[in-house]
Write a structure and sequence with these properties.
The protein is α+β, with helices and mostly antiparallel strands and 141 residues long. It is built from five helices and five strands, in the order E-E-E-E-H-E-H-H-H-H. Strand 1 and strand 2 form a beta hairpin.
Length: 141
């Protein structure tokens, strides 16, 4: 397996960083943002590419990249330790996406209602911050 860190510019790959590591993943390539300390200040964004197979390695060769070795700890720093959890509206959204008669409006309403619900829960969890934000709005008027 080959780990790669890519400095991602708006138009093209600028740099690549590679290291060897072992894992049991059923993918040729995985790509994601890096959030570790080393690349935190990079304003162009840093993308990590993990190559698990020869097929993935071949695909990567077609990129216009320069490879630079980097320790695994740097590549893995700040990455999620567990898979992301599906939200409470996930199944409902998929139902609508599969339904030919559903509209984008229905999808947007479900998403917006869920965002509104989460925002209200957050306000209840943090009453002082909520009070300060309300006061700031009143003062602006």
């Amino acid at each position: 397996m080959l780990f790669i860190v890519c400095f991602f510019a708006i138009v093209a790959w600028e740099k690549l960083v590679t290291i060897n590591a072992s894992t049991n993943i059923a993918a040729d390539i995985r790509i994601g943002d890096l959030w570790g300390k080393k690349y935190r200040e990079n304003e162009e964004g840093v993308t990590g590419v993990v190559v698990y197979t020869e097929k993935g390695k071949e695909a990567l060769k077609h990129c216009n990249c320069r490879l630079i070795p980097e320790p695994f700890e740097i590549v893995a720093a700040g990455q999620m330790k567990t898979p992301a959890q599906r939200g409470r509206i996930y199944e409902r959204l998929w139902e609508l996406l599969r339904d030919e008669n559903s509209s984008i409006y229905q999808l947007s309403m479900i998403v917006n209602n869920d965002l509104r619900r989460r925002r209200n829960i957050d306000r209840l969890k943090h009453p002082l911050r909520t009070f300060i934000n309300i006061a700031k709005r009143i003062i602006k008027k």
